[in-house]
Amino acid sequence: MRFESPTTTREAVALLTRERGDAYVLAGGTDLLVRMKLDLIEPDLVVDIKGIAAMQSIRTTASGTRIGAAVSCAELGENKKLKKTWPGVVEAANLIGSDQIQGRCTMVGNLCNASPAADSVPALMAAAAKVVIVGKKKRRTVAIEKIITGPGETSLARGEVIEAIILPRRPPKSGDAYLRFIPRTEMDIAVVSAGISLKLERGVIKSARVALGAVAATPLLVPAAARAIVGSKLDDAALEKLAAACSNACKPIDDKRGTIEYRTRVVGVLARRAAKIAYQRAGGA
Amino acid sequence: MPQDTSYTHQKFNVIGTRPKRPDGIDKVTGRAKFGADTSAPGQLVGLILRSPHAHATIRKIDTSKAERLKGVKAVLTSADLPDLTDGDRAMLDILENCMARGRALYDGHAVAAVAAIDAQTAKKALKLIKVDYKVLPHVTDVDEAIKPGAPIIQDWVFTAGVEPKPKRPSNISQRTEFGHGDVEAGFAEADVIVERSYKTEQTHQGYIEPHACLASVRPDGSGELWVTTQGHFTFRNICSSLLGMDVAKLKVTASEIGGGFGGKTHVWMEPVALALSRKANRPVKLVMSRDEVFRATGPTCSTSVDVKIGAKKDGTITAATAELRYQNGAFPNIWGMLGAMTSFACYDLKNVKSIGYDILCNRPKVAAYRAPSAPMAAFGVESTMDLVAAEIGMDPVDFRIKNAAKEGTLASYGPTYGPIGIGPTLEAVKNHPHMRARLGKNQGRGMACGFWFNFGGQTCTDLNIGIDGTVTLTVGTVDVGGSRASLSLIAAEELGIPYDQVITNIADTASLGFNDMTEGSRGTFSSGMAAIFAARNAIEVLRKRAAQMWEIPVEAVVWEKGEAKAMGKKHGNLPQLSLKEIAAKAPNTGGPIAGHSEVVADNAGVSFASHICDVEVDPETGATKVIRYTVIQDAGKAIHPDYVEGQFQGGAVQGIGWALNEEYIYGEDGRLQNAGFLDYRMPVCSDIPFIDTQILEIPNPNHPYGVRGVGETSIVPPLAAIGNAVSNAVGVRLSHVPMSPPRILKALVEASGS
Fold first, then answer.
1. Across chain A, which distance is largest between two alpha carbons, in Å?
2. Choosing a second label site near A142 at 20 to 30 A (CA), which of A180, B342, B714, B753?
């Protein structure tokens, strides 16, 4: 196995493109190293991206906030401005693993690991985040919901890496929230989860995005759930419609972490609770 | 000196204090040496190949490619482990569990092993071993395993304990029955009868340290084994017997142990490591992965239990029965019998009957887990006790007090009790402020009782006094819970010296006589008893030496407060001689000063506990949080209260995990789905409230200090205490452990009909 630590994105792309065997990108390594230790993968090349300057920082730009692919989730939690602008996204990112894991793990790593239960992904989908993808020939910016195509599968082409996540500018009177259900208090993986971002106008929900985790083969963006609350002041009827829309949209499985019946019911509960938090954060009563 | 074990009402100086444990610094600084923390020159890495099938015939194992791989020094199959057990089926079972013999009996069953120069080569070699399996039908559920047509797991097993002797093999290895009186007549007298069935899923002890050992067998047939174990003497006897070695020629050293809870009372891969070393003629280190620990070691039984209790309106229980089906894994054992014995041990019952069934399944060999078998029986019985109390409109604590066993009660499993603690723990529950604390929305309170036998067994110790008067106590029981500190306290108490003057060490098997394992809550009870006698024997020597120094008859010398004192008119004016002064003169008065003792510590003294628990249940998700927990238990005498409380708390925490989320989940394919800490959901620190404790001291009449074992009983009540609390919080009775969120939510939805 070869290990490389390039200092530019271009170099990383070149290394990954040239490799004929199995090549993997290493950010925090909190998924990759576990898979290697369990003998699930045997990489021929590992490219560490933590030395790449463009991937190391959180910056405010004209279009929003740019978060480098190698920024750890702990750093997100320490960034007061980001926490204030996108509390739901930061909460989701900070739920991953333990304190030790937080110091290493990244949202882009969470995304590229492509688990249906990835905590940061539904929150980023609700936030309408985009990712900057760099390949051998071109650089493209893509909506985050286009990345995960199935469990462990992404739409990234061979040699492509994600350089950063772009969170849009936060409009006034808006808020987001993310909740997951785990049977323990921490160090667990979502049995079911819901992320919601919404914008108010005079106390009425003007627009919303609802995304669900661990209820289908990929995290789901559910426009019908958003429609259920748009135009409302998040009264009980709207909340019930939201829960029903979420339960309808999910296509869960029975597994060691939960049952179809359980996930279908609880996804609605979490969506209701997350919506209330987001509504309050947006300044709703 | 005759060894009088009876309780003496002795007044104590250092017993009951809380000094620091001697192993603490090494453990918190990472210096302690656990099973995987040692190495030998030229050592090889051992790895085990395991069956992916729950049940299969092994037609052929081709190891030729692995053997040819550069760096591979030995490849092992059952062909290298001939059966030397001479018809001892239990020993053959141990061997077969360590290495499959023509058939794989569960997912994770070892089928071959390699020793190679490094881990990479060993991994590669495992992949080159070709096993030709014929997959057979399997069964993993305890109730399915006894249905007609279920695949038979051991064709030599015919149900024992039934007449006439069965003609066909069965997955029920034995039926056992305990009790007395006439239960039918008892039920006829009852005003209220509650009958209910319960299930509990399989859990693992979850010790953080995986099994690990370093084995070295020399060409002359002698060898050494460094291993994480609860009983290195037993490991020595089993390994030497299975491998045809002389007992005295195998030296086993117990490492520091990172948790055992019963799981490290069994050998799992140690004979394989020794056999690999013998074949390769090099030391072999074998360390299990977590996946191997879950799939192939340790778990306790899954169970299915039916309980029936009848009572009069005044609260008197007229009859009680239980039928308990315990899943033993692929090899027969006595777990169902222990369940039947413990089920009604807390109560004074006129008519009682419990029937235990030991049942085979395609799951790993079941091991002891802290008061093995008692928690599941208690879940059924103590849940039913609450239901009966509710039916007759009586407070559940009062109902238990009314029926509690006491001195002179004929126990349901046979013996008549001496002084016991069940009544006092119940009275303490009734008077505890926890019982009067207010409960909030969605919260509920429950309580339950528990029993464990405790064990004494064979023990021996050496006590050596150094030239400066410091004392080495050498014991053969592995320290799993702070026993070195407790045993130092005992030696210091007897000798009349400070705690700091004594250091307790765990000897290897070459340095001390046989000691039973640290199991059955026996470490401090039995080694403590042996330490008392060793110290008393050393005092005899000290008196003789003092007499010699003074040149007076030994009869005129007494030992008081750590000093020799001359008695009588003739010698009474002599200045006292301290232990230090006598020790300093030892080279000139006859050489080293020591005391030795060996005992079979009988009458360990049964143990009882009552627990109180408050939970909060989220009715929309079924999530349960334990918000307050109190353990009240009889310790006989708490030698070192910190480690008594630690045992109370530890058992409660393991019980909380078992009650709420921990479970082995098998797929349709008979494979374990959650062989790791991510999905085997043991509680983390933030899941657990502070566990409050109250130590009661009802002296064991059969120990000089009144000590009873304390390590196990605390895991017995939690399943039922939490079950009762959850039922009181949500108004629905849960009868399937773990009471995980999906199970609770399903029960709530079914009850509300929505």
1. 59
2. A180
Question: Which band of pLDDT confidence, cut at 50, 70 and 90, is reported for residue B753?
Answer: confident
Q: Rounded to an integer, what distance in angstroms lies between the CA atom of residue B699 and that of residue B600?
A: 19
For residues A155-168, average pLDDT: 97
Residues of B in contact with A269 (CB under 8 A): 620-621
- The domain defined by A2-168 folds into 3.30.465
Using CB atoms, pick whichever of A38, A39, A265 lies closest to residue B745: A265
Condensed to tens digits (0 to 9), the pLDDT of residues B529-544 reads 999 999 999 999 999 9
| pTM > 0.80: yes or no | yes
pLDDT above 70: residue A180? yes
Tell me the helices (H) and strands (E) count for chain B, helix number first: 20, 27
Distance CA B74, CA B68 (A): 10
B681 vs A33, A48, B623, CA distance in Å?
22, 32, 13
How far is residue B254's CA from residue A217's CA, in Å, rounded to a whole number? 48
Are B645 and B693 in contact by the 8 Å Cβ rule? The answer is yes
Domain segments of chain B: what residues?
Answer: 24-32+456-601, 44-136+210-257+263-296, 303-454+605-752
- Burial class of residue B340, CB neighbours in 10 A (0-12, 13-18, 19+): buried
ipTM of the complex: 0.95
Q: What does the pLDDT read at residue B2? A: 55
pLDDT at B572: 82
The tens digit of pLDDT for each residue in A16-74 reads 999 999 999 999 999 999 999 888 999 999 999 999 999 999 999 988 999 999 999 99
Residue of B nearest to A272 (CA): B620
Ranges of each domain in chain A: 2-168, 174-281
Q: How far is B49 from chain A (nearest CA, A)?
A: 14
Contacts with A259 from chain B: Cβ below 8 Å: 742, 746
- Section B117-124 average pLDDT: 97
Helix B270-280 to helix B232-243 angle, to the nearest 10 degrees?
50
Residue of B nearest to A267 (CA): B621
Tell me the two tokens of residue A41.
């993968």
Per-residue pLDDT, B298: 87
- Which chain A residue has its CA at the smallest distance from B620's CA? A269
Residue A190 forms contact with B (CB below 8 Å):
no
Q: Is the pLDDT of residue B754 over 80?
A: no
Domain B44-136+210-257+263-296 has CATH 3.90.1170.50: yes
How many angstroms away from the CA of B659 is the closest CA of chain A?
A: 12
CATH number of B303-454+605-752: 3.30.365.10
Q: How many CB pairs under 8 A join A and B?
A: 53
What is the average pLDDT across B163-169? 95
Task: State both tokens at B11.
Answer: 């007044």
In A, minimum Cα distance to B623 occurs at A183
Asked, colleague to colleague, whether B24-32+456-601 and B303-454+605-752 share their fold, the answer is yes
Cβ contact A259–B123 (<8 Å): no
pLDDT digits (tens, 9 = 90+) for B13-40: 999 999 999 999 999 999 999 999 999 9
CATH class of the domain at B24-32+456-601? alpha beta
For residue B180, what are the contacts with CB-CB under 8 A and spacing of at least 6?
A: B351, B352, B410, B412
